[in-house]
Predict the structure.
Amino acid sequence: MIQAHSIDKSYRLPGQVIPVLKHVSLEVKQGEFVAIMGPSGTGKSTLLNLLGCLDSADSGSYVLDNETISEMDDRALAKVRNRKLGFVFQSTSFVDYLDLPDNVAMPGFYCGMSRATSRQRAKVLLRQVGLGHRLTHLPGQLSGGESQRVAIARALFNRPRLLLADEPTGNLDSSNSAEIVNLLKQLNTDGLTIVLITHDAEVAKAADRIYLMQDGVLGDMGND
């Protein structure tokens, strides 16, 4: 699913170049659940942005699901994001005055799907993540854990091949965090490939393999 080799990424500021990723290589098989750990500021989110086609590397190669991402222009990258990728972030972003089905259905609206068809799929996904009893609610009526479930449902709308999750439990207590991890594990059991960014060793234990990011260098810690 993912073949990234010798990825380098730096940010350029006036008078200085700040290296963020240093010769990073990563392989993720289809159906695998991989966690990337490390403290803040070590390059984890930058790597996830590159894997998610939201940013480009300075050098190196990246092949996603047999497509060479490192050779694509912005338009082609947008198509890959829409067809193959789902994103879940630490902070959820919803339209406060829309109910949950409309918020989950947003990707369908952007793709030209009818509102009725989009809402129907959104309701199926909300039930899948355990929120079938919240179909008439607004985002402001949810707990933190429920909000992340909605975010996951929205990420699944376009039937992604790969789910990228950046600290999805970072704002949650231990109970809600465990529920989100269990949901991700179930999605992975159902066949979804997942790459998870986390600073929490307990959360990382859900993965098949764990990588450690330190000072822009990625090392494989194996599993367990």
